[in-house]
Structures are given as C-alpha cells and as structure tokens.
Design a protein that fits this description.
Layout lengths: L1 E3 L12 E3 L2 E3 L14 H12 L12 E15 L2 E17 L1
Antiparallel strand pairs: 1-3, 2-4, 4-5
C-alpha cells in the first residue's frame, strides 16, 4: 500500500515532511487458516464456536502486522531540515492472531 504524504496533510506528525513524497507501507489482510493460528487464536476460535459464557464478540483469527521497520524522512522542524527516523511505519512481516 503506497502512502502519499499529501494524503496525510493537516496532521501534526506529517505536515512538515519534505521528502520522500510517499513510501510503500505494505499491509496485511485476510483470514488465516487454522494451521497458521497461534494458541490465542485457536482458543478464541473454540470459545467463539461454543459462544455460551465467554464474550468473544465473534473474534476470528486474522492476518495482521507482527514485525515492522522504520522509515527515514526529511522534515522541516525548528527552521531546519532534519533527517528523522520514524519507527514502526513499514510492515515487514505478517502473522495470524
């Protein structure tokens, strides 16, 4: 998923980005098959199927980001151009929870 900083205008965090104009943040989507699920997901699936005394709210295992990496951006702050590192901006690995 390409994120353009022009789409993030009027946000305090990204208003002063000079470069790059955007970046590929990637994304994780979709359902997980039971073989990919962790113990928490399996437990929630069992409780959801019984749906008697546990409020699982229909929780299902799904694909989500589990590992991230940073992106470096040129920003204008305090009347200077600075190179800043923003952590947890690019999905590096997806997993099932």
């Amino acid at each position: 998923m390409f994120v353009s900083f022009s789409d993030l205008q009027n946000s305090t965090l990204f208003d002063l980005v000079i470069a790059p104009s955007g970046f590929n943040a990637f994304m994780c989507v979709g359902k997980c098959i039971s073989g990919e699920a962790n113990n928490y997901s399996l437990m929630m699936a069992i409780l959801n199927s019984k749906n008697k005394s546990y409020p699982t709210y229909g929780s299902r295992s799904c694909c989500v980001p589990i590992k991230w990496r940073s992106v470096s951006l040129l920003v204008f702050q305090q009347e200077k151009v600075l190179l800043r590192k923003f952590d947890n901006m690019i999905v590096q690995e997806c997993g099932c929870i």
